[in-house]
Amino acid sequence: MGFKCGIVGLPNVGKSTLFNALTQTAAAQAANYPFCTIEPNVGDVAVPDPRLETLAGIAGSQEIIPTRITFVDIAGLVRGASKGEGLGNQFLANIREVDAVVHVLRCFEDDDITHVENKIDPIADAETVETELMLADLDSLEKRVKPLEKKANSGEKEAKEALALMTKALVLLRDGKPARVAELAPEERAPYSQLGLMTAKPVLYVLNVEEGSAASGNSISARAEAMAKSQGAHSVVTSAKIEEEIAQMPAAERGDFLESLGLEEPGLNKLIRAGYELLGLLTFFTVGPKEARAWTVTRGSKGPQAAGVIHTDFEKGYIRAETIAYPDYVAGKGEAGAREAGKFRLEGKEYVVADGDVMHFRFNT
After folding, report:
1. Per residue in 128-172, pLDDT tens?
2. How deeply is 179 buried, as exposed, middle or buried, from its count of CB atoms within 10 A (0-12, 13-18, 19+)?
3. E strands along 126-230, which residues?
4. Going by DSSP bridges, is the β-strand pair 281-287/291-298 parallel, antiparallel, or unpaired?
5. What does the alpha-carbon distance between residue 129 and residue 122 come to, in Å, rounded to a whole number?
């Protein structure tokens, strides 16, 4: 089960620098000119979760295996991308393939790094990118609606349902609003997401500031943060340049460096967790002497679906799950203590997995 966050933004806002830090590689070329990223770079990163090390310490696990999330570095969008300007068509196709959008906004002044719009205005930058995505979505829907109307008028049930969803999106887009603000019934969410609309994807704004503002942001990022809040979107302040430096440092030196900047942890940790939450994901654990491992499921997943993440046979033959909540596992100093405290549970097929559950699945082969 792979989950992808696409990193987007105008050229020269720090996307590739951020990606380099995320993947701790130099795979994404960071250069001071537009379109330096021609093909999307893809990197899997571990989701930082201190609970995993705690569990491993209690169980004496030989190996620690974190859960992972994929980030895709997508080349910079420019005004006119929806009409094919720059490398627009290719960029838009790459965005359609991700599950969520991480939108990097430049919130720093630097005369040595040119801005494609020749001004530092993260709110205008966000509007430029959002407008191009909305125009592309609108064009895509309008091309699909006409043939669908004929099928719907002839009485095809599936065509009628699809047309109703497309119409909801069209009304919003024609009014200059992204498709993600549509009011949907629970049963409409899955088919709506399958329409392939870029503006239906959840968005996280990354506010890229200069090194001195990494801890608390600056006046530019404060404006961008207010914009995100007004949209009901999340935002994270970080300095891509600092994060790249941290990623290349020996682990032993990172603590002192972070402390000197007034940071408790790398900004990337917050970004990765925010991306994880943006996708509506949660973590459950399997723990034993061989390994302590984190697994990813979508919120609302039931026991059999969680078992299926480990192996499809587990889902097919699911009987029940031995389950201990993370705080109870820690308080009991392991499974035996949790059992003695009455915190060990057997959960059936309808159990909805909670974040932090420590689970062991029973299944028929």
Report:
1. 889 988 998 998 899 999 888 888 888 788 888 889 999 999 999
2. buried
3. 203-208
4. antiparallel
5. 11
DSSP E strand boundaries for 47-181? 63-65, 68-73, 100-106
d(CA 318, CA 329): 23
Other beta carbons less than 10 A from residue 143's beta carbon: 9
Residue length of the chain: 365
What is residue 81's predicted lDDT score, i.e. its pLDDT? 52
Q: How many CB atoms lie within 10 A of CB 204?
A: 22
Sign of CA pseudo-dihedral 244, 100, 117, 89: positive
β-partners of residue 359 are: 323
Note the pLDDT tens digit of each residue in 216-248. 899 999 999 999 999 989 999 999 999 888 888
Q: To which residue do tokens 């609606």 refer?
A: 145
Stretch (H or E) spanning 145? helix 122-153
What six digits make up the tokens of 37?
A: 């990223």
Which residue, chain included where needed, has tokens 């049963």? Answer: 187
Entry pTM:
0.82
